[in-house]
Structure formats: structure tokens, C-alpha cells
Amino acid sequence: MHSALKYLKDTEVNINNVLLITGDFNIRDSLWDPSFPFHASISDNLIMIADSFDLSLSSPTNPGPTRFSNTVGESNSVIDLMFLWHGSDELDNHSILPEWHLFSDHVPLIIDIPILEETIQTSKLAIFPNSKQETEFIKDVISNLSKLDTYNIKGIDKLDQIVNQLSIIVKQMWFKNAKKSRSSKHSKQW
Question: Are residues 72 and 44 part of one domain?
């Protein structure tokens, strides 16, 4: 982890919209572990990098160790951390689940991230190439274009009016001839 921090510190990283950074940082420090008496300079790098992404060290709702030592005489520690988007009301703290570490020496850190409900459109209007609908669409557009009065265009206002009428014709003929098509995993984005 120290080499990753050095890389991030020495490199201008362009990552947008970071909401959180979490993981086993493998850094013991009195800043987040009250049982540890020392401060490490590498911690300053970690805090500085997080700050560059507008993230702050999160305080757990239930402070405690995040790594449990299996070695006799070695103390438990806090080396798993979470940095959250600074100033967010929704992302303001996390929890430590010591009872979930099972066979691992690390415990899970959890946070609830609110996700807005979104409606995903599963169908769209389409006119398929070489279809009867395409033929009718083109025929209807041409028929209606011939009715436009384009004889005496003497100014921008008249030109704007004709362009707007053209737009309305194409839109109306599209809705008249297009058929609903269901999206699937095989559909193309366009």
C-alpha cells in the first residue's frame, strides 16, 4: 500500500466524482488508532491524497479494531479505513462489524449509500431500415414537404419559420410511422 500512496502522491491523478475510498491501508497511526502511540509521516500522505479527492477520514459509529491479530503478544489494530466525500449528509460515517470477521483477521466496514430510484426505459419508438414503416415515413415526409411555401423566403424570420415547420413535419411523421420496440441485452445503444 505504501508504494500505491507514493504513486498517487507523486502523480497527478485525474479521477472525478469519488465518493469513497476504503480498504486495508496497513498503516498504524495514533490518528485513527487510540491504542497506538505514534504518528507516521505516511499517514500525512494518505490524508493529503484523500483531501485531493475532497474526501475526509470517516469516524466509525462503533470505534474498535479492524484487524485482529492471531499472534500471541501482538495487539489488535485499526488499519482498515474509510474516507468519505467531505460535506455529505448521506455519507457521514461507517460501521465496523467485528462479529463478521469469521476466519479472516480483518473485519468488514459497511456504509449505506443511498441510490435514487430510476426508471429504465425498456422500449422505444423505432423505424427499421427497409421496413414498410420506413417507406411510409419517407413518403409522408415528402408529401408534406411539397406543401411548404418556400417560394418567397426573403429574410431570416421566414427561413426560421420554414425550418420549424419542417421539424414539426418530420416529428409528426415519425410518431405516425414508428413502432414500439423493446430493448434487450442484444440491442444496440444507437
Answer: yes
